[in-house]
# Entry
Amino acid sequence: CPIPSDSRVKENVVRIGSHASGIGLYLFDYQPQWRDAWGYGRQFGVMADEVETVMPEAVSIHPTGYRQVDYAMLGIERATNHLH
# Structure
C-alpha cells in the first residue's frame, strides 16, 4: 500500500542512513494537518523525489496530489504510528 512520502507534507526531517539504492532513510513528523490521516509522532521513511531518481515505478500520486511511495517495492517494512 503506497504511503505519502512527499517532502512537502513532512517536517523535522533528519537523515539517519542510506538505502542500498543510495537514497536517504529519514525520521520525520508529518505536518499537523496530515497527522490524523497518516500518523502521529516520529515516522521512518524515504523522500518520494529521491525514490523517483532510482525507482520511478515505486512512486505514484496520492489523491491529495502529493507523491507516495510503495515501500514494498523498495524492500522496506514500514510501521506507522497512528496513536494520538
Summary: The helical segments are 35-38, 48-54, 71-74.
